[in-house]
């Protein structure tokens, strides 16, 4: 039986994660913590693993507190940069407590990232469009940022030429933001949940990869898989792909 704490338990993802943990036979929910609760042994109630869905400004501090408490974090909160990930990697290795941080736990989104990585070298142009509910705090989404980085790395590895773009005037930033040299566009629209399109273009052809997460339950199989896997994966695991056997 895996003893699980949920941090950010009052939030949209935290509530869904609590329900998912309570619905399976091999886990027991031992703690629901939110913004006013200390992350320490008293409040973690003997948890083995903590699922963390909070806010970008606080997630790193929460993760270090969990590692100090000997509880393996499974983190879905976004807003991580390379330096913060490296600090967690070092802390996890030094403490012997494993951690997993993934910008997206939905199978469709993880596969879009993997397929985008594979496709990138074959196309002249690539752009990412992420579309979310208007309550989202960060832009671009963690998933879009990771997708752009994977595309950029694959293009670098393939020695791809710069993408064609004749734009000379864009005072309002309508061409989107640039993540690792890949244009990323963020839509915030009432009625949406979490969606991403990756567009690849060549002369005369287009490939579109799209993930639609209509409901937060879509993230839960991945969260539960990460909870089951994290204690067997030394150090920091970044992304769900390796847990799904998509190592590259
Ligand atoms: N990796 C993935 O598959 C997914 C990641 N996300 C990410 O998860 C994060 C949370 O998203 P939502 O649940 O929609 O947000 P939300 O705003 O509904 O929930 C955040 C919760 O965290 C709590 N909180 C804030 N500071 C805290 C602290 N220091 N310690 C403990 N709790 C704290 C808030 O009170 C709130 O209950 C976002 O970064 C979002 O992008 C969302 C969906 C899927
Ligand atoms: O805030 C959300 O809702 C989501 N956040 C994650 C992200 O920023 O990539 C994952 C998913 O897109 C939902």
From TrEMBL:
Domain named Dihydrodipicolinate reductase N-terminal: residues: 2-105
Pfam family, one: DapB_C
Stretches assigned to the Dihydrodipicolinate reductase C-terminal domain: 109-240
Annotated binding of NAD(+), by residue: 8-13, 40, 76-78, 102-105
Binding site for (S)-2,3,4,5-tetrahydrodipicolinate: 133, 142-143
Superkingdom in the source lineage: Bacteria
Active site: 132, 136
Pathways per UniProt: Amino-acid biosynthesis; L-lysine biosynthesis via DAP pathway; (S)-tetrahydrodipicolinate from L-aspartate: step 4/4
One of the GO biological process terms: diaminopimelate biosynthetic process
Keywords: Amino-acid biosynthesis, Cytoplasm, Diaminopimelate biosynthesis, Lysine biosynthesis, NAD, NADP, Oxidoreductase
Function, in words: Catalyzes the conversion of 4-hydroxy-tetrahydrodipicolinate (HTPA) to tetrahydrodipicolinate.
Protein name: 4-hydroxy-tetrahydrodipicolinate reductase
Organism: Nanchangia anserum
This protein's encoding gene: dapB
